[in-house]
Design a protein that fits this description.
- It is a single chain.
- With 185 residues, the protein is mainly alpha-helical.
- Helix content is 49%, strand content 8%.
- The chain has a single domain, classed as dinb family like domain (Four Helix Bundle (Hemerythrin (Met), subunit A), Up-down Bundle).
- Helix 1 runs antiparallel to helix 3, helix 2 runs parallel beside helix 3 and helix 2 runs antiparallel to helix 5.
């Protein structure tokens, strides 16, 4: 599998000139993460402590599992991407069940700190290199590291935050605003 590399930003129509800072791509991701973190924290903080094991459907994660997945995915995804090639994570056991909302919020804080410390160490050249997820001899995914981090670190995080908003609504908790007012704010 040969992933298609996008043209350099400086050659795309209407694109800004390529940044001169050697870690500009990582810094842009980190800046976006910092803008989104307070919203994600608001969502997770609304989880009713007594409803951690509730789930909307038998095939769904519990509210606690989903919230902990949101909190822990930051560290998990970034750690995975630090290698040039990695095995896919083993999700067969399912996500762990937290014992408290505090456990979830502490995991979010630990993930945020790991991102702040680690993401800026990845220079633009490495961000543009192909990252692979490989099982045995099969390449399951191959794309520039920046694209992997954009899709799986951030977009995946936003997806689950939106999913968690539905959980909050079904639990009768107030859904916080994200990019505009919610039905509760």
């Amino acid at each position: 599998m040969n992933p298609v590399q996008p043209p350099p930003a400086s050659t795309r129509a209407g694109a800004a000139p390529a940044p001169s800072h050697p870690n500009a791509l990582a810094q842009a991701l980190l800046d976006e993460f910092e803008r989104e973190l307070p919203t994600t924290r608001k969502f997770l903080d609304r989880l009713p402590e007594d409803r951690l094991t509730w789930k909307p459907h038998e095939k769904s994660m519990t509210a606690g599992q989903l919230s902990l997945h949101i909190a822990q995915s930051l560290q998990g995804v970034l750690r995975l991407s630090l290698e040039e090639e990695a095995a896919p994570p083993d999700f067969s056991a399912g996500p762990p069940q937290p014992q408290s909302k505090r456990e979830v919020l502490e995991a979010l804080d630990a993930g945020a700190e790991f991102l702040r410390r680690t993401l800026p160490t990845i220079d633009d050249e490495r961000m543009r290199r192909t990252f692979r997820v490989v099982r045995g001899r099969e390449t399951m995914l191959a794309m520039p590291r920046i694209d992997f981090l954009r899709a799986i670190l951030l977009n995946h995080w936003y997806h689950h935050r939106g999913q968690f908003g539905v959980y909050l609504r079904l639990l009768g908790a107030k859904v916080p605003s994200s990019y505009g007012p919610s039905g509760d704010e």
